[in-house]
Amino acid sequence: MAGKVPRMKLGSQGLEVSSQGLGCMGMSSFYGPPKPDSDMIALIHHAIASGVTFLDTSDIYGPFTNEILLGKALQGGMREKVELATKFGLSFADGKREIKGDPAYVRTACEASLNRLGIDCIDLYYQHRIDTRVPIEVTVGELKKLVEEGKIKYIGLSEASASTIRRAHAVHPITAVQIEWSLWTRDCEEDIIPTCRELGIGIVAYSPLGRGFFGSGPKLVSELSDQDFRKAFPRFQPGNLESNALIFDRVNAMATKKGCTPSQLALAWVHHQGTDVCPIPGTTKIENFNQNIGALSVKLSPEEMTELESCTSVDLIKGDRSPNVLWTWKNSDTPPLSSWKA
Q: Where does the NADP-dependent oxidoreductase domain lie (predicted)?
């Protein structure tokens, strides 16, 4: 399968990545109990051999255990074959949940991630959520120092507002902004996407399969473990789920006609948003990974894109995209953590 996945420039600062990445969060946390290290390392190695070299993690996944897993997977010469992205900004220290972006924390978090990953430089380092108590200029100022010291190569932001992206970019060029973007989560298209394109910032789309919904539809919810935080998602609640199942049915019918799976169709839609967009679907199964790679071969005409978007228009979708305020940036960067349950 080597060579099957094309390469792309992510942003305008020189970073080159595989045109599809691999989200690693679900291997260790949030989507049910942690999976066996040996299986996940085999999956990561399979991804790299297939040409998917852009790996996405964060210190909060676990917390910490996902970075440790990646560190194990990248031993034995694998580090040189990948573009590694991790994040900082969500802290659970001393049982206290908070978002932090002060310079001392930025530096401490970076050093800790380098140590867990077993590397000396992070390719792309994101601020996972924006600390509204600290001016973004101050946070990015510290990240700029880490670039100058060779501890990180490129700077990213996750779930930041358009104004914050502009202010951050004025201090040091931002290489990528990570946002939730899928057939049924499109609110970023209003301000975030145009701002990134104006500034030459790459776009990394997380949850491009609608938290897995476009993989198997409503049956996904009945298969989730009690430890899977998707169980709290509004779109998966009784009432909303039945309505949203109709959306899946329409996408599935279109996929059948197209000769691909619904997940491939949904992922292909994200790929067709532009050459500056890199989706990072996550999985814990090699067969699902292979299916996701197949999305790169699905070509959609403008008419098919329009039809797909009419099947999933915002007025048809029932429920917010996330169970609480942590995951949204609509009016401010990051609201309080009070209602977040990890």
A: 24-311
